[in-house]
Amino acid sequence: MTNAFESTVVSFGPRPEPSARTILVGVDGSDTAMRAAAFAFGTARRQGARLVVTFVACHSSLAALTPAVASVFEHEATARLYSELRAQIESFAEELDVPVTFVKTFGDPYTVLRDSADQCQADMVVVGASQQAGHRFAGSVAKKLIRSGHWPVLVVP
Predict the structure, then answer these.
(1) What mean pLDDT, rounded, does the chain reach?
(2) What pTM does this model have?
(3) Of the candidates 49, 56, 51, the residue with the CA atom closest to the CA atom of residue 25
(4) Are strands 50-57 and 100-106 parallel, antiparallel or unpaired?
(5) For residue range 71-99, what is the model confidence (pLDDT) as tens digits?
(6) Which of 22, 26, 42, 114 has the most CB atoms lying inside 10 A of its own CB?
(7) Burial level of 115, CB count in 10 A (0-12/13-18/19+)?
(8) pLDDT tens-digit profile of 99-121?
């Protein structure tokens, strides 16, 4: 069994054109993230762009309460979610004929998405709107990405 918190990069679909624009989308399995992915796939298909789909695995707050139990549960849940997302992304890439790089990594979602967008020289970043009430006060990943101002950010409700 592979480590749930081990970074991986896989490619699906056709080989991208060297001059193709790059769209980065963050996914976490939530409804809004999956709508963001669907929007990004459609945009990439229409524009002939390549798509970088980024899944950021991060520890939950349960790990602090019961580290051993939470770690096992978290590892299994992350591995299962990654497997499901990978299958969906691969299916969409083949069906829509979109070049996709699927990245799984570990860390803070904002930091990873920001760094990934810079690294792949993204022309646009697409994320789902946060559904957590606390983000109104602390700021969501989407708000932080918009404030960084490096690339256009589209937030899908």
Answers:
(1) 85
(2) 0.83
(3) 51
(4) parallel
(5) 555 678 888 999 999 999 999 999 999 99
(6) 26
(7) middle
(8) 999 999 988 999 999 999 999 99
